[in-house]
Write a structure and sequence with these properties.
Strand order of the largest sheet: 1-2-3-4-5-6-7-8
CATH class of the largest domain: Alpha Beta
Number of domains: 2
Radius of gyration: 27 Å
Helix content: 40-55%
Number of helices: 21
Number of strands: 8
CATH architecture of the largest domain: Alpha-Beta Barrel
CATH superfamily of the largest domain: Glycosidases
Structural class: alpha/beta
CATH topology of the largest domain: TIM Barrel
Largest sheet: 8 strands, parallel, barrel
């Protein structure tokens, strides 16, 4: 890029400023002139980079707008320093006394030249990462997510149970999560219950249906006891074998997702054990998870349907842990002792070891996927610096989860869609920034949102359930879901692909009152991809 070359060339000259006679008025004036030129080249370089990013501020933005927007994309620049430079650049034409000139020269040498250097280093690193990513892309043009964008769906609640998705299977036990369901149910009864569920919940017909709707991948959550080697927990490896047979007959790819680990990595019901996050405290449990991953890789590496393996679903960070109601819902407080978020340093160590185990087993075009741990912006070039190849970063983005924060509840209905757009746009920028270093997939998302429920409740006191309000409620629901689906799919298009959660919620209509007696089944419809298709909410 010519603008970058000009920036570097000018910086070579400006960095000599500290070597000059700074008491000389003529020298001071020359340094200020070179600073003005360097700043001009800098902000215009950012403007060109924002055009490459597709940001509209690049078309008509002022220097201030460009700098503030660039800071959202490039974490190697100091926004406050660049805004100070802008002010000093604007004021420099009106400096007539020696003291003000000397203060500006001091700021140039002490603050501004180092900042120009940091930006140069950041841009050089960014260029190397982009070049490396381009090389990887050329090497992997046949890899889904590189040569062809992922358009997938999660097969949730098949091999890893979640009560809200099919409460009926938990009805007899009254338990809240799968681990306690297993503990509370007699072994023969549990075996029969799980066999009946697994045999019928997903079949080859579902794979044919998924392929017919234009999807190219299924993400299959699996439990840590998938091989049946954990007492009290019936395995399910034969069902994953079937899935590979079905996928190969229908042309689909499979991303195996290790969704649970012993002691849980997030305390969610989808982690198997609500309110407990102790896995990372147990070297034995960590080693067990690594062994499961290696066994899965060896078992399926020669299957043409294998896209890759995701080493761990949603390891929880401190903010999510602190704000999640699940964190305080452990059934056994003694079991939950020492529960807490997964530290970044531990997560990096686990990811490093997972890669070391899996990469020699898997083929070059089979991907190792790492969840961002709800910390998408913190990874930057870590995978590049670790020398990892054939990897992707997974992030999960839900409108309805953002609405858990109290601020969202206070927003009037008329502003909600605009807030959704801002939230989606913010995440699009985060994806763009992360994807400079490592391909990113949106591994879970859906169209569920609270605006639908608020609007229906506002316009029909019974929530749209009466016959006279049903048509109006359906119109509201369809209009909002189509809009949020379109805005998200457009935003997620900057990633390597997206995977909807979830394919279906079979059985929810019979047992929904156990979840929320005040709601109707339509509140779960946006989580059911088959219903989304049939309702025409997503093209």
């Amino acid at each position: 890029m010519k603008k970058y070359e000009n920036y570097v060339s000018a910086l070579k000259s400006l960095r000599k400023a500290p070597e000059q006679d700074l008491s000389n008025d003529f020298i001071q004036s020359g340094i200020i002139d070179k600073f003005e030129l360097q700043f001009e080249l800098g902000w215009k370089l950012f403007k060109a980079l924002l055009a490459y990013e597709g940001d509209p501020v690049s078309a008509s933005g002022s220097p201030r707008d460009v700098l503030k927007t660039a800071f959202q994309y490039y974490d190697f620049m100091d926004e406050s320093l660049w805004l100070r430079m802008l002010r000093d650049r604007n004021d420099s034409a009106h400096i007539y006394d020696e003291e003000r000139a000397r203060r500006l020269v001091d700021a140039i040498i002490v603050d501004y030249i180092p900042e120009f250097e940091r930006v140069n280093q950041g841009l050089r690193s960014l260029r190397r990462s982009i070049e490396r990513l381009a090389r990887v892309t050329l090497m992997a043009l046949g890899t889904l997510g590189i040569g062809e964008q992922i358009n997938g769906v999660n097969l949730g609640n098949w091999l890893v149970l979640e009560k809200w998705m099919k409460p009926g299977i938990f009805a007899a036990s009254g338990e809240a999560d799968e681990i306690w369901l297993h503990r509370a149910t007699e072994s023969a009864e549990l075996e029969a219950l799980l066999t009946r569920h697994r045999d019928t919940y997903i079949t080859e017909a579902d794979f044919r249906n998924i392929a017919a709707h234009g999807c190219n991948l299924v993400r299959i959550p699996v439990p840590y006891f998938i091989f049946g080697d954990v007492s009290g927990h019936p395995g399910c490896i034969e069902y994953l074998d079937r899935a590979f047979d079905w996928a190969e007959r229908t042309g689909l790819k499979i991303l195996i997702d290790l969704h649970t680990v012993p002691g849980s990595q997030n305390g969610f019901d989808n982690g198997g054990l609500t309110g407990v996050v102790r896995w990372h405290h147990s070297p034995r449990a960590v080693a067990y998870a690594l062994n499961v991953l290696a066994c899965l890789a060896r078992r399926y590496r020669d299957r043409t349907a294998l896209f890759g393996i995701e080493v761990l679903n949603e390891p929880i960070d401190w903010l999510t842990y602190a704000t999640s109601s699940s964190s305080r819902q452990a059934k056994d407080n003694f079991e939950a002792r020492r529960s807490g978020p997964i530290p970044m340093v531990f997560l990096k160590r686990f990811y490093r070891e997972s890669y070391r185990r899996l990469r020699p087993i898997l083929a070059e075009n089979q991907v190792i996927v790492f969840h961002d741990g709800f910390r998408l912006g913190r990874w930057r070039d870590w995978f590049v610096r670790e020398g990892m190849r054939g990897v992707m970063l997974d992030t999960h983005i839900y409108l309805i989860m953002a609405e858990h924060f109290p601020l969202f509840r206070m927003i009037p209905e008329r502003w909600m869609m605009s807030c959704y757009r801002l939230f989606v746009r913010w995440n699009e920028r985060r994806i763009r920034r992360a994807a400079r270093y490592t391909p990113v997939i949106v591994g879970e998302w859906c169209v569920a949102n609270n605006l639908v429920n608020r609007m229906i409740a506002k316009h029909s006191g019974d929530g749209g359930r009466s016959e006279e309000n049903a048509m109006h409620s359906a119109s509201i629901r369809g209009s909002i879901y189509r809009e949020v689906a379109a805005m998200q799919r457009k935003a997620w298009s900057v990633s390597a692909g997206q995977i909807y959660w979830s394919y279906q919620l079979r059985g929810n209509r019979d047992f929904l009152p156990t979840i929320d007696p005040q709601s109707d089944t339509s509140r779960l419809d946006p989580w059911d991809f088959t219903h989304v298709w049939h309702a025409g909410w997503m093209v």
